[in-house]
Specification:
Largest sheet: 7 strands, mixed
Bound molecules: S-adenosylmethionine
Strand order of the largest sheet: 5-4-3-6-7-9-8
Structural class: alpha/beta
Helix content: 25-40%
Number of strands: 9
Radius of gyration: 18 Å
Order of helices and strands: HEEHEHEHEHEHEHHEE
Number of domains: 1
Distance between the termini: 28 Å
CATH architecture: 3-Layer(aba) Sandwich
Shape: globular
Strand content: 15-25%
CATH superfamily: Vaccinia Virus protein VP39
């Protein structure tokens, strides 16, 4: 296992700006995310040869989070082609620890073959089924020993009902210091009458996060992960605080 803990933070020497023009950043970031999404630019990236459906900014932020938490396991619901799994596995390989568990309701054969024969496959476990089903939950639980530090990434069905159910079912995997990442909270800003995201009006991951946090005081939004202003996951990083 590689040990990065001796590396002192150089943050105090880095010349960031305290007086940022937040309004400009929010407006131009919002415009860019809308254009990016309408043109499906978040479908253009491969990570180590495998398509990953994320923005570059969100991938960089996930890298920071994984380095910070150094998790034993990452659970990702919603695999698609597998690029997210390979991305997390590549960072775990560099850190010298950790396994990624990917859950998808349908793992297509061409995707499965690429993931299972990828050089990082020893760090990836696949589970096929509905992420909220009893069988899948039991299967995932069996794979994770108690006291493991876990990050759970929710990127499957993006309706409020499904995401809320995932938040309720998967919270017990996360210890204090661990995180939920609720992807695509931005859909609530993009959804409008007549557009491609219409079905998500008041029915998106953002509404699921709001309802979950109203009842659940063990998690809070880690606003530091909003720092790039271009993200499909604004207010989507939920830290377990107790
Ligand atoms: C946005 S894609 C995932 C993208 C992937 N995380 C990445 O980084 O490239 C959504 C995936 O969720 C899966 N999915 C949809 N409903 C699901 C459910 N109820 N349980 C598990 N997976 C589901 C779909 O089959 C699809 O592959």
């Amino acid at each position: 296992m590689s040990d990065y803990r001796h590396i002192p933070s150089l943050r105090k020497y880095v010349q960031t700006r305290a007086d940022k023009n937040i309004r400009e950043l929010e407006e131009s970031g919002g415009r860019w995310i809308k254009a990016l999404s309408e043109n499906r630019l978040n479908y253009e990236i491969d990570w180590l040869g495998v398509p990953v459906i994320q923005t570059p900014e969100d991938l960089v932020l996930m890298q920071e989070l994984i380095f910070k938490v150094q998790p034993d396991f990452i659970i990702e619901t919603g695999i698609a082609h597998g690029g997210g799994l390979v991305f997390y596995a590549s960072l775990m390989e560099l850190l010298g620890k950790g396994t990624v568990i990917g859950v998808d309701i349908e793992i297509r054969q061409h995707n499965r073959e690429v993931i299972e024969t990828h050089p990082l496959s020893s760090r990836i476990v696949l589970v096929e089924g509905d992420s909220t089903s009893k069988e899948v939950l039991q299967d995932v639980r069996r794979k994770i020993p108690g006291r493991s530090q876990v990050i759970v990434c929710l990127d499957s069905n993006h309706t409020k009902y499904h995401v809320l159910k995932e938040l309720e079912l998967y919270q017990s995997f996360i210890m204090p210091g661990g995180y939920f990442i609720v992807f695509d909270t931005v859909i609530s800003r993009l959804a409008g009458p007549g557009n491609a995201e219409e079905k998500y009006i008041n029915n998106s991951p953002k509404e699921a996060v709001d309802e979950f946090l109203q009842k659940n005081k063990s998690f809070e939004i880690d606003k530091s992960f909003n720092k790039l202003f271009v993200s499909c996951t604004p207010d989507g990083y939920l830290k377990r605080i107790r």
